[in-house]
């Protein structure tokens, strides 16, 4: 039956049409006003005394009639109003409701109160307080349940696992809008249950103003969390290396035991001491040339996900670098003399073209021209995933260079410029320099240049000259210098900048597994393997197996990790069940520092201290207080008053 919004004296009625019956009350009033009573004249001897008695009798009857009239009018009015069913409610109580809940299941919700995690407590309170017949939608950082009742998803909620992902406020708002209907007439309640770590916030949160947003901030009593943050292997010249382990969140006056395992074998144990800022560092000595499936472990009463850390030390494959050089300089020999590289250098007339297919990096250094036959080989080499570095000569035949470059990218050398300029700009966000500098340096002693080639290219610029012309461009396996690097033309080969430049160009040719990878980030690893076009590599750990994205090159397979894996641990790359390499993955440590957002600083939202308190508030907002029973009682009371008037008033 429809409910109408009609208010009388702040009250609403379920059947307001019945109130028209109140106009019928005018009938008894009219009858009373026009009712005439005739009195019979009877002569008596003492007329004066009788007239006084009659007058008093008339006054008494008139009062009684008025009291009865008022009582009966109120009685009828009470009955009519009772049938109209009066009630009071909030403005939104009569509107249809939609409810969408965001339940934060990120790792910081592992924090405990009274021995139970924040997530477990939130789930229990939600199941207990949400109505059994209430339809709602709920989403976490990775899962979505649309238009369900609590009985439909109770088991799923109780078995929720923690996630390393965390939606921010804008993402929560956008996701919620996809779960609400397009009906503009409904009240849309968005409930956000979270511990509200600072990283949930964004610079300018923009939640839809049409939503009724309710925040339930949960916070643990213990706000200290010790985390294994990262590890670093410092290779030594002898047969031993140092494994440095960095921790955060400790107390200065406490030492924390930390254990090092190789697979499941405990190989070392020590105690970590912390500085006043909570940072700590420990060192383990490990064998340099021995493979290690490492696991570090601590015991901490707060968050559990960051109490373990996985890493791998694998036997390193040497990067094969071949230089085709017409220069007498030995700068390339000095750059690639380390154990990480297998370096060869040839004059063009001494080169065996068939050896290029086995290389990871080919450097064209100071060649006057590039023969067509070599161009064809280099195109195949680059297309097969090799890295090509081009360094021109002052007297280079740029037409032969352009013939090669035009087939590899939209790059062309233009005229040569003779001018004394300096290299003045480093693109710090370029992949070659992204992790080289701790901060953007401004007092660097930049190299000088006497001659350079102008270039037209779509490749990103890594280094620039003072006039804005590129010094080095390239990415993704193709790097081109515009400046001849002979010492008489530039002192770049004596600059500290040359080492990270050439080292990182060579390293990019072979995506070697890092000591560890971080889940949630795009990771690429080159696996030395010879497989056919129909063969695939698999990745497995403890019965969990998946097939990663992979690209086949001669002598290697490039494996990419994005959505998988989803759990931390040490994974094996398998070819026909044979282990080719081990790779370690760890959860990001972004939630390890328990820094919480001041929810009170956010606008246009309602904050509650707990889930039960929120549902009490929502229930009060939906309450409808009915008054028809009171009007029935009033009618009975008025009927009793009428009887008393009849008996008492004479």
Automatic annotation (TrEMBL):
Residue intervals of the Aerotolerance regulator N-terminal domain: 11-86
Transmembrane stretches, start-end: 18-36, 66-87, 627-645
Protein keywords: Membrane, Transmembrane, Transmembrane helix
One Pfam entry name: BatA
Domain of life: Bacteria
InterPro entries: Aerotolerance_reg_N, Double_TM_dom, vWFA_dom_sf
NCBIfam families: two_anch
The protein's name: BatA domain-containing protein
């Amino acid at each position: 039956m429809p409910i109408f919004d009609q208010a009388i004296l702040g009250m609403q009625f379920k059947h307001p049409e019945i109130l028209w019956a109140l106009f019928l009350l005018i009938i008894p009033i009219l009858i009373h006003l026009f009712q005439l009573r005739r009195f019979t004249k009877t002569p008596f001897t003492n007329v004066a005394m009788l007239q006084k008695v009659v007058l008093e009798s008339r006054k008494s009857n008139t009062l009684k009639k008025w009291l009865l009239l008022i009582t009966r009018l109120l009685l009828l009015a009470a009955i009519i109003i009772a049938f109209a069913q009066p009630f009071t409610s909030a403005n939104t109580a009569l509107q249809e409701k939609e409810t969408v809940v965001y339940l934060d299941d990120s790792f910081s919700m592992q924090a405990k109160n009274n021995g139970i995690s924040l997530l477990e407590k939130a789930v229990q309170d939600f199941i207990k307080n949400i109505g059994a017949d209430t339809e709602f939608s709920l989403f976490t950082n990775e899962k979505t349940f649309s238009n369900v009742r609590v009985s439909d998803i109770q088991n799923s909620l109780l078995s929720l696992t923690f996630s390393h992902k965390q939606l921010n406020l804008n993402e929560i708002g956008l996701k919620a809008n996809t779960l609400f209907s397009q009906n503009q007439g409904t009240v849309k309640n968005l409930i956000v249950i979270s511990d509200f770590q600072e990283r949930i916030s964004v610079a300018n949160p923009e939640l839809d103003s049409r939503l009724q947003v309710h925040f339930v901030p949960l916070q643990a009593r213990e706000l200290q969390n010790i985390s294994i943050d990262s590890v670093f292997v410092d290779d030594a010249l002898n047969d031993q290396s140092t494994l440095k382990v960095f921790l955060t969140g400790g107390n200065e006056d406490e030492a924390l035991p930390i254990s090092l395992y190789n697979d499941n074998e405990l190989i070392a144990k020590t105690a970590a001491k912390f500085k006043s800022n909570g940072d700590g560092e420990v060192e383990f000595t490990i064998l340099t040339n021995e493979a290690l499936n490492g696991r570090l472990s601590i015991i901490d009463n707060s968050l559990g996900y960051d109490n373990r850390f996985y890493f791998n030390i694998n036997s390193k494959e040497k990067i094969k670098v071949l230089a085709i050089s017409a220069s007498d300089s030995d700068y390339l020999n000095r750059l690639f003399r380390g154990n990480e590289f297998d370096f060869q250098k040839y004059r063009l007339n001494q080169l065996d073209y068939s050896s290029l297919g086995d290389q990871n990096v080919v450097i064209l250094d100071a060649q006057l021209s590039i023969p067509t036959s070599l161009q064809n080989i280099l195109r195949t080499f680059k297309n097969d995933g090799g890295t090509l570095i081009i360094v021109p000569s002052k007297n280079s035949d740029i037409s032969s260079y352009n013939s090669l470059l035009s087939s590899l990218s939209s790059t062309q050398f233009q005229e040569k410029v003779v001018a004394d300029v300096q290299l003045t700009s480093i693109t710090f966000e370029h992949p070659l320099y992204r992790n080289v500098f701790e901060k953007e340096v401004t007092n660097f002693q930049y190299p000088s240049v006497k001659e350079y080639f102008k270039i037209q290219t779509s490749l990103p610029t890594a280094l620039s000259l003072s006039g804005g012309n590129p010094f080095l461009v390239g990415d993704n396996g193709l790097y081109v210098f515009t400046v001849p690097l002979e010492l008489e033309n530039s002192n770049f080969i004596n600059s500290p900048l040359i080492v990270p430049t050439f080292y990182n160009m060579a390293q990019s040719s072979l995506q070697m597994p890092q000591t560890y990878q971080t889940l949630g980030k795009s990771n690429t690893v080159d696996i030395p393997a010879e497989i056919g076009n129909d063969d695939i590599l698999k990745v497995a750990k403890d019965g969990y197996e998946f097939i990663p994205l992979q690209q086949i090159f001669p002598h290697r397979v490039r494996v990419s990790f994005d959505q998988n894996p989803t759990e931390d641990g040490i994974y094996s790359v398998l070819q026909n069940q044979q282990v080719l390499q081990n790779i370690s993955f760890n959860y990001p440590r972004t939630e390890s520092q328990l820094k919480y957002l001041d929810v009170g600083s956010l606008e246009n939202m309602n904050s509650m201290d707990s889930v039960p308190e929120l549902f009490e508030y929502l229930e009060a907002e939906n309450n409808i207080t009915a008054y028809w029973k009171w009007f029935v009682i009033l009618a009975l009371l008025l009927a009793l008053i009428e009887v008393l008037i009849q008996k008492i008033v004479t």
